[in-house]
Amino acid sequence: MSKELKPSDFENELEYVEAELGINIPNGDYNINKEGKLLMLDISNNRISDISCLRHLKSLEKLIASKNKISDIQALSKLTSLTKLSLYSNQIQDIGALSPLTSLTELYLSSNQIQDIGALSPLTSLTELYLSSNQIQDIGALSPLTSLTELYLSDNQIQDIQVLSNLTSLKELYLRSNQIQDIQALSKLTSLTWLHLSDNKIQ
Questions:
Q1: What secondary structure does DSSP assign to 3-30, as a single string?
Q2: Which of 3, 10, 125, 195 has a 20 to 30 Å separation from 184 between CA atoms?
Q3: Running DSSP on this structure, what letter comes out for residue 160?
Q4: Cβ neighbours of residue 12 under 8 Å, at least 6 residues apart?
Q5: Rounded to whole angstroms, how far apart are CA atoms 29 and 31?
Q6: What is the separation of C-alpha 114 from the centre of its chain, rounded to a whole number of angstroms?
Q7: 125-159: burial string, b at 16+ Cβ within 10 Å, e else
Q8: For residue 88, what are the CA distances in angstroms to 82, 160, 198?
Q9: What strand order describes the sheet that includes 62-64?
Q10: How many other C-beta atoms can be found within 10 angstroms of the C-beta atom of residue 69?
Q11: CB distance 118 to 137 below 8 Å
Q12: Contact at 8 Å (CB) between 70 and 52?
């Protein structure tokens, strides 16, 4: 049985990630500090399915892993320094691993297979949240996220948007292509500068 690789086996965390993922990460797609710790990493637009090696990157502040084949994101639960996380266009269903990531301010999860967003409730530092093109019906978990200024929920199966009345910091709200009939809850969102509601069932 081969020995499990660890970042300490390499000169820095970048070399470790490249070895584990089997990809070459070009200049500009990473930021590394003097101690060899990765602060920013862009591994988007590859065919990556296993990101378990990322669990060691405790100093990581920004991770862009969009347009891959990722379904299991459990490894990210330990990356509590993350402020920006992009996982759009993957194969993710379970986002439970994200609930400890309370430093996140930007989260991109569009174009996945997500139904349950309950894990997002603790992420009260979020200002931008992208959830378009999933299979979401219940958005009650968004109620505590009162720092949100941009919220993308288009192309889901949402009917009840009453919870959005709490999100009074919202400036941009995207609700296109859902099953919304009643929009009375939006009357309290007086900071809105952009509202997209086409392709619903508004009466």
A1: PPP-GGGSSSHHHHHHHHHT----TTSE
A2: 125
A3: -
A4: 32, 36, 37, 38
A5: 7
A6: 11
A7: ebbbbbbbbbebeebebbeebeebbbbbbbbbebe
A8: 16, 24, 22
A9: 30-32, 38-42, 62-64, 84-86, 106-108, 128-130, 150-152, 172-174, 194-196
A10: 12
A11: no
A12: no
d(CA 146, CA 8): 40
Residue 120 DSSP label: G
63 touches 56 (CB < 8 A): no
Collect all residues with Cβ–Cβ distance below 8 Å to 71 and sequence separation of at least 6: 49, 90, 91, 92, 93
Match 């959830």 to its residue by tokens: 131
Q: How far apart are CA 159 and CA 138, in angstroms?
A: 8
Tokens of 138: 């219940």
End-to-end distance of the chain based on CA atoms, in angstroms?
64
- Please state the length of the chain: 203
Please report, rounded to a whole number, the percentage of residues in the chain having pLDDT higher than 70: 99
pLDDT tens-digit map of 118-133: 999 999 999 999 999 9
Q: Which residue has the tokens 């996220």?
A: 145
> Has this prediction a pTM greater than 0.85?
yes
